[in-house]
Every structure is written in structure tokens, then in C-alpha cells.
Amino acid sequence: xxxxxxxxxxDARIVLPDEGFAARVMATLPARPRTxxxxxxxxxxxxxxxxxxxxxxFAPAGASLLQGFADLAQLQAxxxxxxxxxxxxxxxxxxxxxxxxxxx
Length: 104
Known about the structure:
Structural class: mainly alpha
Shape: elongated
Number of domains: 1
């Protein structure tokens, strides 16, 4: 840490007398809106479900999800079923990442 960082950190630790001003301001602020704890997870899972439904709906004709997973197991990633399986897994992965990042 260089000198300017040390000086600024030491200066930030100094308590300034405000004679209750900060407490009065905090008391006049409106209350924080209460959010339901399950709402964020429900929205993420709903979006993942919608993504999966859209992946199935816009899949190439004749694409089967199970056949796609079988194609991926055989390292054939360019078949219509494999593309559907990749899109399906991508939607679920995106929801998992959002939940992991946003967890409290």
C-alpha cells in the first residue's frame, strides 16, 4: 500500500460529529420494500422452464431430446437432437449460474 492509500484510509476512519443528523435522515427515509424470498428463485426457474420450452419448440424438425443426449454421448454434436439437448442444458445452466451469483 502506498502513502496516498494509507493517508486516505486513515482519514476515512475519522468519525465526524454530526449531532444526530445521520440518524434523523435515516429515520425519514421510507422503509425498504419487502420482497418475498421465493420470488427470485421462482422467476429464475420460470425463465429456465420457458427457455427449455422454447428450445424444444424451435428445435429442428425430427429432433428428439433423448436421441440428442445419445448423440452427444457418441460425440456427434451436430445432429438436430444434439443441438436441442445443448440448448436445453444451456437454459438450465444459465438459471443455475444466476441462482449461484444472486444467492444471499
